[in-house]
Predict the structure.
Amino acid sequence: MKMSKRTKATYHSGRTTKSGKIYNANHNTNKKTRDGQSHINHDRTKENVLYRVEGNRLKPCESYDCIEFEKKRYKELFSESLEARNERYIKQRHRERCRDIESLYRDPKKCPFELVLQIGKSDDEMTFEEKAELSKNININFIREIHKRYGRNIVPLDLSGHYDEISPHWHYRFLFVYQGK
């Protein structure tokens, strides 16, 4: 797509808000969490796209409980090592250090990483449709580049494109993982 108009791309990434609260994953994936919000154009909500990652495949979804899905992924990925660590803590008489999947998921240092890429702002000279198409292309290429750089150390969880807000943007949630020290 060739465009002569210029616009700004905004990138944000992190695990928590400025106040330290972890991001609500269901904002991205559950229609109920978008109802009643004044910045949402509900006529466009049907244009949103949503994928969860199962295995190495993107699975298109309508709406689902993202938090429950991510906890399930945490359990698949970390149960074995968490149980081994908890056993060591119990043997060392430090039962207070034991954790469960819920506490791991809610920990600001261990919760999923969220990356948001937005194209444009409300007063750009580009049409919404132009920004939406550009947003889709940029996000696909950006995610490919991340996976090329980090490979197996990234575990994707879900991807959602929001076309019902002022500027189109995508949320990509994932984990950085590694083995050993």
